[in-house]
Specification:
With 197 residues, this protein is α/β, with parallel strands linked by helices. It has 5 helices and 9 strands. Strands 5-4-3-6-7-9-8 form a 7-stranded mixed beta sheet, with helices on both faces. Strands 1-2 form a two-stranded antiparallel ribbon.
Length: 197
């Protein structure tokens, strides 16, 4: 849900699905200060990286915001996406977009990411989208919680998006970076995770 300006082709206040079943669909974005979808070029690159694994996957979209990453995953064949977002306004709009798309497999939770991760894991996820607001500086702690709390499937993939101006946060023991790239002020990485469970 990173809250910062990002260039891309989506119209102001709108989110465009890049590819898949809902390709080019435009969706409204909640009027929340600084809220914006992950840029289309970044999503295109990310989902090229995920192409071999996205079909039938179970995904977790933490700090979901507009839901751009999770909705793109569902459009491209993910079986399930759990969206976790603290802003009630953003959650209302995300639920409306899920309804408009008739997005089966979407579960939108109005909850803090930490509280969700500290809850008893009911599901284990193949892919996690981690895009916290830059100001939170939450990447390192959230990765640690993911590693420690049993929410990850074996060899899960974690997408991490953060501010390229910051020092690269360390990964939990046993995790390894598969891909990385920068676009503008955004650093994004795909990591293979190891759960301690």
């Amino acid at each position: 849900m990173a809250r910062r300006k990002q260039s891309g082709k989506s119209q102001a206040g709108r989110l465009r699905i890049v590819a898949g079943n809902w390709r080019s669909r435009l969706l409204d974005i909640a009027d929340v200060e600084g809220l914006r979808p992950t840029g289309e070029r970044i999503r295109e690159t990310l989902f090229n990286w995920l192409a071999p694994t996205i079909e039938g996957s179970r995904c977790l979209d933490l700090f979901a915001g507009t839901g751009a990453l999770g909705l793109e995953a569902l459009s491209r064949g993910a079986l399930e996406v759990v969206f976790v977002e603290t802003s009630a306004v953003a959650v209302r709009q995300l639920r409306a977009n899920v309804h408009v798309l008739d997005a089966r497999g979407a579960d939108v939770l109005n909850q803090d990411a930490r509280a969700f991760l500290e809850s008893e894991p009911g599901r284990r996820f193949d892919i996690v989208f981690l895009d916290p607001p830059f100001a939170l500086d939450a990447v390192e702690e959230t990765c640690r919680l993911l590693a420690d709390t049993g929410h990850l499937a074996d060899d899960a993939l974690v997408y991490i998006e953060d501010d390229r101006a910051r020092v690269v946060p360390p990964l939990p023991e046993g995790w390894r970076e598969l891909r990385n790239k920068t676009t503008g002020n955004v650093r994004y990485r795909l990591v293979q995770a190891r759960s301690k469970e």
